[in-house]
Amino acid sequence: MITFAGVTKRYPDGTTAVDDLHIEIPTGRITVFVGPSGCGKTTSLRMINRMVEPTSGSIAIDGRDVRAQDPAVLRRSIGYVIQQAGLFPHRTVVDNIATVPLLLGWKKAGARARARELMELVGLDPEQAGRYPHQLSGGQQQRVGVARALAADPPVLLMDEPFSAVDPVVRTGLQDELLRLQSELRKTIVFVTHDIEEAVRLGDSIAVFRPGGVLAQADAPERLLAEPVDAFVEGFIGYDRGVRRLSFFPARLLDLHTDAIVGEGAPIARAREVARSSGEPWLLAVDGERRPRGWVAARDLERGAVGSVDAVGDLDLVGYGHVFTVATDSLRAALDAAVLSPAGRAVGVDEEGRVVGVVAQTDLGSAIWAVGTDDAPTTRPVGRNG
Amino acid sequence: MGDQPLVRWDWITGNLVDPIGTRLLEHLQLSLSPILIGLLLAVVLGVACARWRWLYPPVFTGVNVLYAVPSIALFFLLLPYTGFGPWTAIIPLSLYTLAILVPNVVDGLGQVPDHVRQAAVAMGFSPLRRLVQVEFPIALPVVIAGLRVAAVATISMVSVASLVGLGGLGQLILTDGFRRQFTTPIVVGITLSVLLAFLVDGVLVLAQRLLTPWTRDHGAAAGRGSARRGEGART
């Protein structure tokens, strides 16, 4: 656990970067410091490894004041990932990663072997070991940065806007990778970002800072979205926090309808019957393996507009848009699928892509209303759209 | 110089070891020592200037003013103290290299990106280790670019030292050639001086390729563009 006790950082020109910060950062979890620029989040991070010294107050890691150790020695026990990766341009990938083990006095061969292990861990091609940083893409450089920070297996990892300089697609990949690594490694991670989406995605807990270095709120992400303490936090989180909060509720909470599904080979008469008995305005046509094919409007069946077509699959089917995976996606993904569906209904599938059932926007509405007053069952967003 | 041929080969073969070989070695010694001493001083001054920025303007002005003093005047000024020994040449020539090398060391260290320096601090490098293992290597291409200019300038300036009788290839040109109205030593002296400059420059280029393998396909431009002044050949 990292403990900030009344930490203040004031510069000689009178500006206060961090103002009386009290916070406890739990071991083995990701804690995100988030806020607009000039809110003291990076300064707070850098006080942990003494790159910035506080004006008053103290910081302790597992009860031990960070000032009890020589700064260089302390820093070797704390991993650090910086925005542009900060790789050493004159060292190869493998030697960049081996930096801290070498500083700790490991033999060169041992340090390099460890570096190669880490390349594998962070998903880097072993062939890149001998390359120089400028020969890598931004995303790969950032992976090297993470590997280098982890090389000496430090219990604490500080990450200062590590993914903000890469494009959004790569960033999402790196975030996924970080979560995967963390599920294996269980480090105490302090992550600084100005991006609330990233904070919600990664954080087990989130500390929102306001300008002037004051901690506005520290909470689990779902609590933060549900109950921002004041107008500043609410404004910072953004107007769609209600929708984003749905990321914390799994889609399996939904009641899916299965009575308005027909096989694509079924005759039109059979489809008409299904429409009548279910009372649904839209039927979902599925193939022989229950994979979705498309929507059929019930009224098109009734009006006899089907002409000489015999089977449902031969009709002009309306595209079913994108689907959600019932077991792993969140309510937010289901809502998104329903909003984008021309039928106003979302198709829920299993992991193999077979239809489990469909849910209409109106049913989603009641489900959302029902969970609206609950605490979320998870602390981490569910699924890929989390 | 009469109707003697430009080059008398028999004179060259007859004087290959002495004075030609001796003068060449003297020349090499008189140019390499100032380059090495100058580099050492420039690194100390450059690191200090990079560390304490306020130091740079006065140091920069100082080394430039020194550079403006004619070398021959400086040689004569030192004669009473150091006599006709090599130091009379080495001291002024070392000081001249500073005007080229100090700005290059400062620029080279200035090329270390801030995020790289910060990452080094955060990894747990001590200040000295950071300087030696991170900042110097990154500064090296720019420093070597300056060293090339300083080396060629020094090699050409050593000839001037011969005017006050300090040895080197200039001695060949002046004593054996000019005073005796005999062109062969003059041609030999000039040719060897130019070849020596080429050779030392070549060694430096090679050294850079070996010492900074990471610049081979991209960073070389950074080193090339930054030598402060290439026009420094003095006479």
Automatic annotation (TrEMBL), chain A:
This is ABC-type quaternary amine transporter. Keywords: ATP-binding, Nucleotide-binding, Transport. Gene3D superfamilies: P-loop containing nucleotide triphosphate hydrolases. Belongs to the ABC transporter superfamily. Residues 2-236 form the ABC transporter domain. GO terms for molecular function: ABC-type quaternary ammonium compound transporting activity; ATP binding; ATP hydrolysis activity. InterPro entries: AAA+_ATPase, ABC_transporter-like_ATP-bd, ABC_transporter-like_CS, CBS_dom_sf, P-loop_NTPase. The keyword ATP-binding applies. Its EC number is 7.6.2.9. The keyword Cytoplasm does not apply.
TrEMBL record, chain B:
It is a multi-pass membrane protein. Residues 24-205 form the ABC transmembrane type-1 domain. Keywords: Membrane, Transmembrane, Transmembrane helix, Transport. It is found in: Cell membrane; Membrane. The keyword Transport applies. One of its GO terms (biological process) is glycine betaine transport. The chain crosses the membrane at residues 32-52, 59-81, 87-106, 138-166, 186-207. CDD domains: TM_PBP2 (cd06261). The keyword Transmembrane applies. GO terms for cellular component: plasma membrane. InterPro entries: ABC_transp_perm/SBD (IPR051204), MetI-like (IPR000515), MetI-like_sf (IPR035906). Belongs to the binding-protein-dependent transport system permease family. This is Osmoprotectant transport system permease protein. The lineage of its organism: Bacteria, Bacillati, Actinomycetota, Actinomycetes, Streptosporangiales.
